[in-house]
Target: Nudix hydrolase domain-containing protein
Amino acid sequence: MSETEKVEKEQAEKEADHHPYRRPVDAATLILVDRTAAIPKVLVGKRHDKVVFMPGKFVFPGGRVDKSDNRIPVAAPIPGALEANLLKGSPKITPSRARSLAIAAIREACEETGLCLGRKSNGATPDLEGPWKPFTEAGLLPDPSGLFLIARAITPPGRVRRFDTRFFTADASTITHHVDGVIHADAELVELVWVELGSKPLADLHPMTRNVLNELEKRLASGPLSHDAAVPFFHFYGGKMQKDVLGAA
Model:
């Protein structure tokens, strides 16, 4: 067993609550990348020490899909190639569900970090409420056109929380609005840091998140991001993690 496999096994045993089967819920994560320097940087947030899930850990913003995500008006539709990637795999989802996943990634990033991916609307900006209020105040609509799908991962069976997560990435240049006061000592994320790939904060990521980050690093090393690249699918079968490719025969 490799050192990585040992770490993943220990992490799984630590997290395993041996709950009966729970159907995973759809979730989305956004990894923002700054490529203005020789070594790309990614944005991570440090979770509050008192939260239940991964206290004190560095994470990427993300969370479950809300029922309202598909109804939110957008500045531009999700790219057809991105939709095609989201529709790959099983169980099958609808185009509206694919759209919800992309929009959820933008919403969670804005909620948790105060960084919003949006664009001025052509007409009057709808009066959006709740987590979308910062977009209304800035005269923006969420813009998923700059998102790329990096990976999909499903939490192993037996956990108290199970997610079917799509990991997106976007360039930092797509951030068009910053909400002040989101990060503070009593928030879910108490600190935001842009860190170089390979740096120390990234070594303490959850093993699955680290797998996804490794995939992103490979993509970045090969040149500009593209929707044509293979998208890995991490899931568990027979108690072991499997890595497939979405849409592969």
The helical segments are 3-15, 80-87, 95-113, 133-137, 200-203, 207-221.
